[in-house]
Amino acid sequence: MVNHLNLIAWLAALLQTALFVAMAPLFTIWVKRIKCTLQNRLPPPWSQPYRDFRRLFAKEVLLARTASPVFRIAPYIVCGTTIMAASIIPFVWVNIPFAVMADAIVLVGTLALGRFFLALAGMDVGTSFGGMGSSREMTFAALAEPAMLIVVFALAMLSSSTNLSTIIGFVLDQPLALRPSLLFGLLALILVGIVETGRIPVDNPATHLELTMIHEAMILEYTGRHLALMELAAQLKLTIYAVLTANLFLPWGISRSLDAAALGVSFVALTAKLAVLGALLAVGETLVAKMRLFRVPTFLAVAFTLALIGMLSFIMLEGR
Amino acid sequence: MPPTPALCLYLAIGFALASSVVSFAADRFPVLLRVGSFALLGASSIAALAACILTLTGNLPFTGELPLGLPWLHWQLRLDALAAFFLGIIGMVTLAVSFFGPGYVRSYTHGHSSLGILGVMTGLFIAGMQLVVVAADAFAFMVAWELMSVASYFLVAFEHEEAANRRAAFLYLLMAQIGAMLILLSFGVLAGFAGDFTFAAMGNTNLTPIWAATAFGLGLLGFGMKAGIVPLHAWLPEAHPAAPSHISALMSGVMLKVAVYGFIRLVFDLLGHPHWSWGVIVLAVGSVTSVYGVLYALVQHDLKRLLAYHSVENIGIIYIGLGLALIFFSAGQTTFGVLGLIAALYHTLNHALFKSLLFLGAGAIVQHGHERDLEHMGGLIHRMPWTAFFFLIGCLSISALPPFNGFVSEWLTFQTALQATTLESGVLRAVIPISAAVLALSGALAATCFVKVYGVAFLGQARTRRVRHAREASAGMVLAQGLLATLCLLFGVFPTNTVGFLSKITLDLTGYGVSAATSQGWLWLTPIAPEVASYSAPLILLGVLTALGAWACVYFFTRRRRRTQPVPRRDPWDCGFGPLSSRMQYSASAFAMPIRHIFRPAWRIHEEKIREMDPQLATRPVQLRYLIHADDLSWQFFYVPVERFVQSAARQVGRIQTGHLRHYLAYSFFTLIVLLWLIT
Amino acid sequence: MTAYADLPLIEQAIRTFAALILVTSFALLAQSRVVAAIQVFAWQGFLLAALTALVAWNSGLTHLYISAALTLALKALFIPWLLIRQARRLGILRDLDAVIRPGLTLMAAGALVIFCYNVVVPVREFTQVVTRDAIAVSLALVMIALLMLITRRKAITQVVAFMSLENGLFFAAVTATQGMPMVVELGIAFDVLIAAVIFGVFFFHIRDSIESLDVDQLSRLREIND
Amino acid sequence: MIALAVTLLMPALTALVLAFVRPAPVGTRINMSATTAGFAASVWLAWNVLTQGGIHGAQFQVDAFNVYLIVLTSFVGMTTSIFSGPYMAHELELRRVTPRRMRLYHASFQGFMFTMLLSLSTNNLGVLWVALEGATLATVLLVSLYRTPESIEAAWKYFILCGVGIAQALFGTILLYFAAARVVPDPEQALQWSVLYAHAAQLEPVVVGIAFIFLLIGYGTKVGLVPLHNWLPDAHSEGPTPMSAVLSGLLLNVALYAIIRIKMITDGALASGVAHDPHLAGKLMMGFGLLSFMIAGLFLHRQRDIKRLFSYSSIEHMGLMTFAFGLGGPLATFGALLHMTVHSLTKSAIFVTVGHASQIAGTQKIEHIRGLVRTQPVVGWGLLVGSIAIAGFPPFGVFTSEFLLLSATMKSWPWLAVPLLAGLAVAFAGLFRHLHSMVFGPSPAGQQPIPLNPVPVALHLAFVLWLGLSIPAFLARWFDEATRLISGSGLL
Predict the structure, then answer these.
(1) Beta-carbon separation of B669 and C150 below 8 A
(2) C177 in contact with D at a CB cutoff of 8 Å?
(3) Which of B381, B547, B570 faces A64 most closely, judged by CB atoms?
């Protein structure tokens, strides 16, 4: 493992995290723009999300009468954990020291911590919508967990490690091979990601329709900087899953050293991958309709089965 | 003279017994119980902790003998690392309880339940548990074990005015008895080969495979009955809520662990080399138990029942770890076997801490909010902030969220399961990850369940008047929860040191430890190797603290402005509905509804919709109430049939006693003839 | 193994008496009238006493004469007298205690005799002289008495059966072992005496409680309670 | 010898005296003091035996085995008489008994004690028989003391069944005598146990086999072995409670004692194995014991009368002991001896409390006895603790004996441990399902505490607790000698 005393490495890692956070709104607006163009609407400008953040941070904070301290702390914890998760994911550089801080399972755990507080915040004010949102969010997250874990297992078995850097390094070292385990794992991860980030067909970030909404229902009561933090966390989460998909399964181009050229290359490569992924997501969301709430478990069952098949095929077909 | 483990051990047991003795007079002088008895319990727990620490910090295992028991076999005591560890667990929880108790039992001083019994039995209960873990021969073990069971039975039956509690106590005692008999038989098998009841002799025998399997099976059932593995758990959700809350904390937090101790002692110490099928069985049992427990917890709305079902779940998680350990040991992969064992032990410790924390919190709520039903709570965070804070920590820990302790043990379990790739058998390699997925599912469901608990109980608005006027618990009760909460955090943030201690235990028990785990220093926990997997809880904590710090800064900077105009409070928007009333909140049953819908076959749900009509207008309902209750399937499929069978057998047998003298004479006559015929 | 004819007359007499006693207990089994049953029982006692005397003469054991006297007094005279008296005072002297399926019962009794003989067959090979078949006969007496206990409903006939059971025992004691040690004999006699008295007491209690002596009505205490 | 004489004569003479003492209180006091003196004498006797070795006379023989039973008997007799004082006084107030019957009661009580002690200390099997028959005669009128139809029915059944049983036992005794007469020179000695035991090997096996069966069935009826047990619950439930206490605590033990003595001879006679399986006696006892154990456990479930309930539990435990003695071997025998002791202590204590309970509730019907702990904690807790002790929970002695028993079974007949386990569980459930509702819960309105003397129960349970925690050395040595006598080898 990298030596922990290398200051430059730590600085670089921090910078990369900052870059990650900075790029998250870009990714969301990119998806939004493509959707708009596909739906023949006038797309918002690239700077839209940043403007929103500025406005929200400036606004004053309103609190519901029944709100408790949990309600006020939640945004910071949600956002903080998400940033932490972002910081341990190799973004443009593989061997970041943060990656040693936590492996894939801890990554899932960190996101779960954020979700826990998000759901509590939803229930705090005591509105029926908030409770509904929390209930649905937690339920689907719980169902998504096993699938996610099996994906991690498949990767971990492949590279005999749960450390993200190690996994990526392993995939890079491998000669390009068509591995069913990786293929199914990729599909499963995408499905899980859709559920976790609340995109169509599971949830619709654009509506506030009581029958459909999950994530939005929990943050209905938030205003000002609190709302901004929540939004940022959501966008970051979407980007995290995108980056995971990109870097774990098709990591080619990512830099393994700290020299500028390699980093530049890997940044370009990553941007390209994300662009493609975002476009795919937008197309998907345009083509598919939102599904009924109780079809989501089936959706997740599919994800789990895919992941399981991936793992089993690793055990049976790609046996050592 | 420096305190030796032996001295501390005897002190611990002595103080516990003393506390039960002083309580004899508690009926007349309640203050004796509140002050004397609990103080002695505290002393006992501190002594126990001292014994634990002294033993784990390098003292030799202490072996002793009490002049009790059979004439040719006095009680053998042995305080080795494993025993010390469990002694420590007992000590920690008892310490918290001894802070919590004085405030809590105040509510009983006016009832007509006898305080004396409460104190006496509590002391005996704790002494019994301490004796179980240090007993080194089958007889002493059984006596201590039964002492524990009987004492706790009296505590379950403490508030015996309610028929439900009587029933719970009966069920509990019955199953405790059966379990004890099974354990006795399993020891009997070992003793039959060893020719002696001492564990030392039993450990040195090598049994034939069939008898080893028999002993294992009996032990699994016997100890499982106490630990509450499905389907032998039925007593648990009945008995734990029935007892006073600090006793529930002891039962759920410690007594179940004592059962786990017994199982570990039997399987890893006495039985010798395990067979791989044992591991698979334990793994399967554990997986089923964990999911079953959490699913039933989700549909409960009685807080203490819910927590009891969560104990079932956590026992399942512990058994998953043990199963993994057995599998790896039988395959000769000792390193990973030890890792599994450590994961199980770690989770044992954690569950002891957070489950007792939660039960104490529940106790505080029950005492000051006079409610056990979640559907009637709400908004308690405004009334009892400290309890709310510590309860939150408990929820985070039991939901296995970093950086708290629950996460570490589950993470270690996952890491062990990941090593399945090193096994030869492809089947095992495929089965283990699935059980890990089950573990993940139950973990996530637990998180769901505790969002429900915390959200419904502490957040939102109060749903009943008494809850609306609840008061914060007394200082001692808060202190007790604080203690446990701190421990939860510490054991979560410094896993490396903990694992270091635990590997001492495994070294003492199996002869192997995990050196790699702590090789990278206190900051990094690397169970197998740094590049394989690593976890740095302190850094995660740092991250969380940074977030909180950010909030603190904002809070600080906006303070001046707030003094001039405080943060405006408005009615919630709620999509334009409103005004908001407490009855519009999402209830516990509503929260769990999606889960109920998805896992429909897992329960038998009884729904009941009561509508009271307006006396004037028969078509207009004035009040609607929705009751939901989930039956435990194990009754339907396991207990009721057995009960029916016994009943019918009894009825059949009753027929022989006709009341006619001539029939009786005929019995004697024919018995005579048959016997005479037999011998010719 | 000597032929029966070679045995001395006295032993043949003993055999004959044994056979007679067996006959009496068959008669008891078949006897359905209370008074007749008691009389037959008295006869059995008398025969038993006579047999005892014969054995005493044969073996020259003086203490057997005493037990013969005891038997005569107790079994042949006192107890029958007592029973008759009780029966008269209870007004059941002329009652019937119908035997259930007499034919079947007698056949069963016969079967029992064979069975008892079969049981003691292995014994015979070791033993000699007079006591040889005594065991078989006494066993048969006991068994038949038990059978009678089972087949009779009236308390008083049950007592008769019980007493004839005692006779069977006494028969064994006399013929097989030339009597028991004196202390035992006296003890047994004493017990039988007390038993007879207590039985007497009980008849009245039972009569008072169920207005009859039919023991089949004494079936309140039972486990079939549904 | 003098000690023995005192021990035996004390009750005999007192019985005669009490038969003529008219006023009930005086009788009660005499009764109490007599049993106390008897207990003192028996302790003295035990001390003599312990110091100077046992008495081995022609008519009397006192060794380690029966001397402790003698002490136990006189002890239980003492405590029961202490209990029966206030109890019978209360019954007298309720007019359930008349002063005349009190006289009968006291006389019979002492007579019963005499027969018990005689049958324990005699060396002559014939006298043993006489004494046991005498015990029946002494108690049968006590069973019908209340003169209710049920009590008379019970007494009649008790009388006939035990009479028939005892008659069968006599037949067995005669057969033994018959077998012994041809090996023992002096026919006067041919019934002496010591002589028979000495010549056991030469006894004719077939006869002894038949004899054993008769004796087993005969005395087994008194022990209460299924299916010969039917008199037991009736007699226990209908008689006055002190009588139930001594029946359960003493009579059953003594009958079992007789069977064991016989078994020792039988084993000696069958050892050659020419005619029968050498372990015939043991196997028969195991069979009967296990059967009684299982059946009684099931009976417990459907009881409605509290005294019947506990009498079935007596049957269950006697079955367990019979099984253990049949099992043989030092471990089982030691356990069985211990069980004999603790069972009679515990069970008599339980019957005493049951007596109080039924006086408090005014009935013996289980569904009318409620909330004892509330009404009179002494009684409630006494009943609860006693039942917990009898159910075999540590630290009470019953657990110790059952532990030894189970492990002995695991050693020699591992698979029999399964029915034993099942039986214990069933019996336990059967006992506690009734107990809970009686002891716990709110107490019905108007239920009043009664005057009582808590000492006997406390004493008994304290002893049982002591035996469970640690068996005192001298007692252990005692048991061990007895074990040596019975099973041939000791443990210590």
Answers:
(1) yes
(2) yes
(3) B570
Question: What is the C-alpha separation between A132 and B591, in angstroms, rounded?
Answer: 7
Looking at beta carbons, which residues of chain C come within 8 Å of D160? Answer: 149, 158, 162
Average pLDDT over residues C158-177: 87
Encode B546-558: b = buried (16+ Cβ within 10 Å), e = exposed.
Answer: ebeebbeeeeeee
- Residue B669: closest C-alpha in chain C: C146
Rounded distance, CA A226 to CA D14, Å?
97
Residues of chain B neighbouring C119 (CB-CB closer than 8 A): 676-677, 680
Residues 190-219 of B with CB under 8 A from C: none
Beta-carbon-side half-sphere exposure of residue B557 (alpha carbons within 13 Å): 5
CA distances from B92 to B182, B243, B350, B486 (A): 30, 20, 11, 12
Q: Is the four-CA dihedral B82, B85, B89, B90 of positive or negative sign?
A: positive
Cβ–Cβ contact C130 with D under 8 A: no
Residue of B nearest to A312 (CA): B430
Chains that touch D (3 or more CB pairs under 8 A): B, C
Across the interface, do C191 and D137 touch by the CB < 8 Å criterion? yes
Residue C181: which region, alpha, beta or left (left: phi > 0; alpha: psi -120 to 50)?
beta
- Within 8 A of B667 by CB-CB distance, chain D residues are 227-228, 230
Give the count of beta carbons closer than 10 Å to the beta carbon of residue D250. 26
The full set of domain ranges for chain B reads 635-680
Does the beta carbon of B221 lie under 8 angstroms from any beta carbon of chain D? no
Please enumerate in sequence order all residues whose Cβ is within 8 A of that of D257, keeping only pairs 6 or more positions apart, or say none: D65, D66, D69, D119, D120
CB A150 within 8 A of CB A188: yes
How do residues B307-346 score in pLDDT, each as one tens digit? 999 999 999 999 999 999 999 999 999 999 999 999 999 9
Residue A151 maps to a domain: yes
D-chain residue closest to B657, CA distance: D230
pLDDT beyond 70 at A242: yes
Measured CA to CA, the distance from residue B126 to residue B9 in angstroms comes to 13
Residues B579-591: what's their mean pLDDT?
86
pLDDT at C226: 54
Domain of A221? 7-316
- In chain A, the number of structural domains is 1
Query: Which residue in chain C has the smallest CA separation from D154?
Result: C221
Q: Which residues touch A107 (CB under 8 Å, ≥6 apart)?
A: A85, A88, A89, A164
- The enclosing H or E element of B631 equals strand B621-631
Strand partners, D56: D61
Q: Where are the domains of chain C?
A: 4-217
Using an 8 Å CB-CB cutoff, list chain B residues near D469. 68-69
Are A62 and B429 an interchain contact pair (Cβ–Cβ within 8 Å)? no
- Say how far apart CA B467 and CA B367 lie, in whole Å: 11
D247 DSSP assignment: I
Residue B402 parent element (H or E):
none
Q: Which chains touch B (3 or more CB pairs under 8 A)?
A: A, C, D
Q: Which residue among A119, A160, A304 sits closest to B532, beta carbon to beta carbon?
A: A160
Mean pLDDT of chain C, nearest integer: 84
Q: Where are the alpha helices (DSSP H) in D226-375?
A: 231-238, 241-246, 252-270, 280-299, 306-327, 330-361, 372-375
The values of phi and psi at residue B457, to 5°, are -80, -45
Contact in structure between B376 and B467 (CB atoms under 8 Å): yes
Mean pLDDT of the region D191-212: 89
Collect all residues of chain C within an 8 Å Cβ-Cβ radius of residue B655.
223-224
Q: What pLDDT does residue B413 have?
A: 95
pTM, rounded to two decimals: 0.92
C129 touches chain D (CB under 8 A): no
Average per-residue pLDDT for chain D: 90
DSSP string, D425-458: HHHHHHHHHHHHHHHSSPPPTT--------HHHH
